[in-house]
Amino acid sequence: MAQIFGPLDYVIMAATMIASIGIGVYFRFTGGKQKTNEEYLLADRNMSILPVAVSLMTSFMSAISLLGGSSETYYYGMMFVLINLPYGYGTPIAGSLYLPVFFGLQKTSTYEYLELRFGPTIRMLTSMTYTLQMVLYNGIVLYAPALVLESVTGLDKLISILVVGLVCTLYSTLGGMKAVLFTDVLQTALMFATVLSVLIFSSIQLGGFDKIFIIAREGGRLDFSNFSVDPTQRSTWWSLNIGGLINYLSLYAVNHTQVQRLLTVRTLKRSQACLWWSWPVLLFMSACCCISGIAIYAVYKDCDPLASNSITAMDQIMPYYVVEAMRSIPGLAGLFVAGIFSASLSTVSSACNSLAAVTIVDYIGKWCNVRKAYVPWLTKVTCAVYGLVFLGIAFIAEHLGGVLQASLTIFAAVGGPVLGVFTLGMFTTFANEGGVSIGLLSGLAVTLWMNFGTPRPPLVRLPISVEGCAANITLPDIPAVNPSDYFYLYRLSYLWTSPIGLVWVLVVGSVASLLWRQQQPWQRAGRDHPDPALFTPPLANRLRKRYYQEKKTDDEVNASSAH
After folding, report:
1. Is residue 375 part of a domain?
2. What CA–CA distance (Å, rounded) separates 418 from 440?
3. φ, ψ for residue 190 (rounded to 5)?
4. What is d(CA 502, CA 504) in angstroms, rounded to the nearest whole number?
5. Which residue has the higher pLDDT, 325 or 554?
6. Rounded distance between C-alpha atoms, residue 512 and residue 363, angstroms
7. Which of 126-130, 141-145, 236-240 has the lowest mean pLDDT?
8. For residue 440, is it within any domain?
9. Is the full-model pTM beyond 0.90?
10. How many angstroms separate the CA atoms of 346 and 504, rounded?
């Protein structure tokens, strides 16, 4: 480790942590000093567009994404970068059809909507699903990058977990949502610096930026022509566009972490602007990660580090390049680690704040009678507790074996079904609590079965070479795999999990609602029509127009009767 990190590297890493804590301390003692939940969880709904837009990107662009994006294009090609296209046309869908409902209601928890639209049961089911999903995922967000850094750089994983976990717990607990949003801006800058440093250094090493693409094309990494409709192929135009769209909507249209951020600005137009500005930031970050993958491939095209046993896992490829090729320049290794830490910090701190909101509103607020004066204090304690829970999961993760992959699988599997629940609520008037609950539970069962079922066929990577390795290394013979030997659902691309979950909930939830008639919340409240504010704007406008006409007709009838 002493050979890898010098004094400047340690200074950069320490400065990142100190600056993040400093931002938390600043917002603890300025403004409203985090004395109300309105400020602590929603930043007084008075944030500017830039920090919110940046935070929307970093909330789910974790260190796992940063490391995984480069390894994806290194071993499977640049096809994956096309997933940013549906993110672009998913933005107006999320901003004009889903966001106005949440913004109009101005609720602290996204899942309060479900009780207003359906009832308390489905609200509790979805909020508990979200809590389990985020707790498991963020524990892995702390653990996985620390494990990768330790295996390549020698930086002790326990130290990495402790530093990142305690720092993000401290500043998110002290400074609330304002601290989370502004630290996200700082951490995003470091993430960009990390990835861009890889691109710049590799370009110099190869003799020009264009050489990256020339070598990548020769190695089959720039093939964008896969229009196959076969859902078992890893990345095609269809899976990336359809799967990418549903994944985007499940995160940016209905996920509480993102919706909570979108409610921190004053007006709906500003909230929609945050969504629109977050897309180019996400696009640029994603593109840089993907290009860095093929840049590293161009460097190692004749001696693949994984095949030569220099690394033991695909996700180690970027840290290995930094250590092996870039450590000659003082500070670059420290900048890289600071960028990886920043990616973890932004994701985990967002989760601490969001889970505190859900816990206070959906659990404690529903089950306990807490004095109003104690609520802000209790919210801060809850935020800190979640940070410590993430730390605990990260520390025991190495003993859980398959649970690592399981937690990431759960995260991917719940997005489509939960999106289906909100879609049925906002786009239909007939869906009821019983039908939607059946749809959600059965949909989760299907998507988890698809993702956890075994045995699964091995993934086929693009060709690699070891001809340029100093040692005499030969590539192992890979036995031919007959796809028909595996159950069909286990062969489907991971990109189809969310679309299948969405369609399942829409179909099953609709059919079950039509067969199992239940009183809707507005009927139980004695009203003869639903509140238009609970529906997507096109449907809400139709409902308002219909009820206005009915009221006008009733008034005319009453007037004629009076005469």
Report:
1. yes
2. 7
3. -70, -40
4. 5
5. 325
6. 28
7. 141-145
8. no
9. yes
10. 33
**Spacing of C-alpha 219 from chain mean position:** 31
Rounded to an integer, what distance in angstroms lies between the CA atom of residue 152 and that of residue 402?
A: 22
Q: Which class for 403: exposed (0-12), middle (13-18), buried (19 or more C-beta within 10 A)?
A: middle
* DSSP, res 2: T
| CA distance readout (Å), 254 to 30, 104, 425, 441 | 32, 14, 12, 18
* Residue pair 351/134 in contact by the 8 Å Cβ criterion: yes
* Selection from 443, 398, 389, 402 nearest residue 420 by Cα: 443
Secondary structure class of 405 (helix, strand, coil): helix
Cα of first residue to Cα of last residue in the chain, in angstroms, is 94
Buried b (16+ CB within 10 A) or exposed e, 281-296: bbbebbebbbbbbbbb
pLDDT (0 to 100) of residue 405: 55
Domain assignment present for residue 536? The answer is no
Of 237, 352, 251, 281, nearest in space to 54 by CA: 281
| Residue 455, preceding peptide bond in cis (omega within 30° of 0) | yes
Enter the tokens of residue 142. Answer: 């702390």
Domain count, the chain: 1
Please give the backbone phi and psi of residue 222, each rounded to the nearest 5 degrees, phi first: -115, 30
Q: What residues have CB less than 8 Å from 201, skipping those under 6 apart?
A: 325, 326, 329, 332
Q: How far apart are CA 304 and CA 307, in angstroms?
A: 5
**2, pLDDT greater than 50:** no
List, for residues 13-64, the tens digit of each pLDDT value: 999 999 999 999 999 998 888 889 999 999 899 999 999 999 998 887 777 7
Q: What is the DSSP letter of 478?
A: P
Range of the domain at 46: 1-84+104-229+256-399
| Structure tokens that stand for 61 in this block | 């662009």
Q: What is the pLDDT of residues 269-285, one digit of tens each?
A: 999 999 999 999 999 99
Residue type, 171: Y
Residue 453 pLDDT exceeds 80: yes
Mean per-residue pLDDT over the chain, rounded: 89
Q: Is 61 within a domain?
A: yes
